[in-house]
Amino acid sequence: MKTIYSYQNHSLINLPGEKWKPIPEFESLYEISNYGRVKSLSREMMLNSPGGGSYMSKEKIRRAKVDVKINKTTKQNIYSLGMTLYRDAIAYHYSLPRLTYYVFKGKFNLDHSTELISFKDHDGRNTHISNLVKTTISQIKLASYKEKRAISHLSVLSKPVTQFDGQGKVIAHFPSMYEAGRLTGFNGRNIAEVVSGQGHMFKGYFWRAGIHHRNLSLTKIRRNTERGEINTALAKRLKIRYTDKSKIPAIVNLSLASMAGEKWKAAPGYQGLYLVSNYGRVKALGKITQGLQQKWMPEQIQKIIVDFRKDRKGKWVAGSTFASMAVEGRKKQVSIPRLVYFLFVKRYDIADTNLRVYYKDGNPPLTSIWRGVFLLLV
């Protein structure tokens, strides 16, 4: 790796103009330089062994922890460097630029969250003292707005917005999100968060930026965080291998697109909430959650749960399959074979737990359950 920043340099040789000072409360243990590098000093270390004893540790430059986040406006990386110091076997975590400023420019309350350290070049990896500035969250936000590295909530709130009801029908237009909040009694900032993609609903209503005249198609609303179309964890556990994505086994297929010949029926006792297919897949329909938040949950394929058990030889083998389903806030793991048999093979008293569904081929999770390979036994 090419060394660009001082924190990447772990050599004990000083950098140009580098100066070292003891870290307060860690004197004789650590020193920090005006470049933001931390040195662990040579000291006597006790051996953790029955015979006891000690040895002298060597000086070394400690490695900084690098955290990376994404600026939502510029889509650029935001870096922050941290350092963990130890005293009497207790770990203390510090922000490296805060610690550098504290030692070389001026002491302040390191635990006080209103006193922040910013970077003149906006690069959190450049921890040289000449690049550090003590500031506040308000000053950071103001500078970010001016330099277009962030969008002011005031500018967002000034944009027009459309309100939709829980079925996606247009019910109102507002010249601004601020005005929408004032007239509805809702919080304009919360409306702005939904519009910016941090959710779909607020107070049981959908909100979209701009003036819209068409109703929303609820089936086209997707999850904010898209997930993969394959349950890779279960595929690995079952040792399922596939090369053609169009032939993904139903048990690990999370795609909303129906498979060839796949049919769907309403799950008994969960009408309007879940559908079950003849392939043994379970689809949670889009719905508004209960409670104060009233969030919109887009439809999705439920991940199948496999009941793994030990056989007579002590080997873990796959048993039956289940899906998590909820109604009126009560969640339950429901047997998929029982549902498929009831919907696609033959109706029976599904509430009777004495009736069992078995697999003809003896391979519960991988069997072709849409081809009627069940036997219903009393």
Automatic annotation (TrEMBL):
Pfam families: NUMOD4. SUPFAM superfamilies: DNA-binding domain of intron-encoded endonucleases (SSF64496), His-Me finger endonucleases (SSF54060). Residues 18-52, 262-287 form the NUMOD4 domain. Coiled coil: none annotated. This is NUMOD4 domain-containing protein. It comes from Chryseolinea lacunae.
